[in-house]
Amino acid sequence: xxxxxxxxxxxxxLKVKTHLREGIAAGRWRPGERLxxxxxxxxxxxxxxxxxxxxxxxxxxxxxxxxxxxVGSFVAQLHRIASTLTVRDxxxxxxxxxxxxxxxxxxxxxxxxxDEQAALFALRPGAPLFHSVIVHLENGVPIQCEDRxxxxxxxxxxxxxxxxxxxxxxxxxxxxxxxxxxxxxxxxLPSSQDAKLLAIPKGEPCLVVRRSTLxxxxxxxxxxxxxxxxxxxxxxxxxx
Length: 240
Known about the structure:
Layout: H1 12-25, H2 38-45, H3 49-61, E1 65-68, E2 72-75, H4 78-82, H5 90-96, E3 101-112, H6 115-121, E4 128-138, E5 141-151, H7 168-175, E6 180-188, H8 192-198, E7 206-215, E8 218-228
Antiparallel strand pairs: 1-2, 3-4, 4-5, 5-8, 6-7, 7-8
């Protein structure tokens, strides 16, 4: 039996996903235990089977759920959950908090890879890359400056996207499904451009995440994400 609470502005699949994620974190379903079936979740939330399937599929991609065709979905073992890097869409994070996401595109251009960029992407110098700078806002307040390079061969239509409607992360995960990610997290002061775009003092500490993601062995994107320390924090929980 599933007790579902539906309300707020979040998309329906996110409500199902959040319900399952929070239940796993709280120990409602233990590692190896079977989750409610798609039919049970469909009935409990009053949504389509496709909506439930998307929620389970994303939890599987994040390493929290194992899916066995014809049998059902099960909570992944803790060692798999703990070792999995979750690449999350900032729009999804904000929606899960019941808040409004907005993005502002400040730069979108095609560039040629210099020696350092070519080495990062395992490409020849001069290979085409796309470069974007986007600021993400939560309820009108800037919380992330996203400075991104994209391998043009992996996402040739990147420049044609409307980034006021779809985030780069969402688009790239669709066209080049994630197989591996590498990242670093540091506390740094913002650059002059970061401070201006985020509307913060130059002396405010920031959380800076540098991440590159791969699909089928190719580096798809390299991104620098700058978050004001007073407005953003990383959070996670694991149940033993």
